[in-house]
Design a protein that fits this description.
With 94 residues, this protein is of the alpha+beta class. It has three helices and six strands; from the N terminus they run βαβββαββα.
């Protein structure tokens, strides 16, 4: 199992997500006007089917940056987690 990497780079995130068959999403019923709420990465056919709703990359990254998030991910596999940038500042690759 490879070690998790951390990034805030939009191109890296989008490429990793799309290579792994995912898309930007949010948890249904969270957020409000101009706020998508709780962000997630949705992988079609997995457990988020009922609770997640797809959103645009622009909407995802606007909220991602506004909330100062970073993506923890493994290059091999689908492991990912959205975390506070402060919690991984020394691990960021971008």
């Amino acid at each position: 199992m490879s070690a998790a990497r951390a990034t805030v780079d939009h191109d890296t995130i989008r490429q990793w997500v799309e290579q792994n068959g995912g898309c930007p999403a949010h948890v249904k019923g969270t957020g409000g006007k101009n706020d998508p709420g709780i962000l997630r990465i949705d992988f079609t056919g997995f457990s988020g089917q009922e609770s997640l709703e797809k959103i645009s990359w622009d909407e995802f990254f606007d909220s991602f940056d506004a909330n100062e998030l970073a993506l923890l991910y493994q290059e091999e596999g689908r492991f990912n987690k959205l975390v506070s940038r402060d919690s991984v500042r020394d691990q960021l690759d971008s």
